[in-house]
Amino acid sequence: MVLLKWLAAAAVIISLTSCAGTYHSYKDTLQLAFTRQPDASLTLAEVSNADFDFLYVTHGDRPQSVMALMFVEQGDLKWISSDQAMLITNNGRITKTLGFSNDLLKLTATTTDPIANWQAINEQSHWQRLVDWRAGEYGYSVSSSFKVETGHTINVFQQDIAVTKVIEYLDYATPANFLRFDQRWQNIFWFDASSGVLLQSQQQLAPFTEPMQLIFVSKVARELAKQAQLSKAVKTEQPAA
Questions:
Q1: Where residue 149 falls among pLDDT bands split at 50, 70, 90?
Q2: Cβ(181)–Cβ(150) below 8 Å
Q3: Phi and psi, residue 155, nearest 5°
Q4: Res 9 pLDDT > 60
Q5: Exposed / middle / buried, residue 197 (Cβ in 10 Å: 0-12, 13-18, 19+)
Q6: Residue 23's pLDDT band (cuts 50, 70, 90)
Q7: CA–CA distance, 203 with 185 (Å, rounded to integer)
Q8: Structural domains in the chain, sorted by start
Q9: Which of 5, 56, 72, 175 is deepest in the core (most CB within 10 A)?
Q10: How far apart are CA 94 and CA 126, in angstroms?
Q11: Order of strands across the sheet with 212-215?
Q12: Contacts of 71 by beta carbon, 8 Å cutoff, 6+ apart
């Protein structure tokens, strides 16, 4: 509850500022506003009753953190964390970061990302884009192929949710500026089996970075509410014995 109150306070403060030019000006406010604790989490009721969306993020071996959705601009969702980092997602994919050791600066061809229309993915689905990194790597070509698996579940808020699993196979094709041998890796996206909404993902932004697990807990809460309403409606319609 304390975490939720501070998140709400931070959201109000940040909503009174513009996005691009004032991010660094409210870093001190964020540092005071957010609590820090191992595996931070919120209850289903707190998430369901909040006025804005939350995201769980686990980065490598670090404890789970809560990020709050602060801005939505032309399809880009901008999330702020307690340690003053920012993630920008588009259709659930991380497209830019701020406050990490080697920030993702730019990702091209986001409008052709198959994840945006994952139901149409097949064996021929392919995605090519260019990536810029703060550590002096620019215009790197990354290609992806995809595989769809049904019949999976994830567990959030102690509830099992049926999902469709999309595996993305990535190839870091451009010769690196630094010696490395890990040119291929995977991302995984879990979509609600009924609605098709993205609920969870594991994204490794490059072969030299730690994976991030994202759980879109506000979306999960909304899907659970829909399922509860549907179950209630079905029971109501059943004739009495």
A1: very high
A2: no
A3: -120, 115
A4: no
A5: middle
A6: very low
A7: 10
A8: 2-224 (2.40.360.10)
A9: 56
A10: 18
A11: 93-98, 86-90, 76-80, 65-73, 54-59, 212-215, 198-203, 184-192, 159-172, 137-156, 126-133, 104-107
A12: 19, 77, 78
Q: How far apart are CA 172 and CA 177, in angstroms?
A: 12
Q: What single-letter amino acid sits at 3? A: L
Provide the 3-class DSSP secondary structure of residue 216: coil
As separate numbers, helices (DSSP H) first and strands (DSSP E) second, the chain gives 4, 12
Query: What is the greatest pairwise CA distance in the chain?
Result: 72
Q: What is the pLDDT of residue 137?
A: 81
Chain-wide mean pLDDT for the chain?
A: 83
Tallying the residues shown for the chain, one arrives at 241
DSSP 8-state class, residue 189:
E
Q: At residue 130, does pLDDT exceed 50?
A: yes
Q: Read off the pLDDT band of 108 (50, 70, 90).
A: very high
199 vs 2, more confident: 199
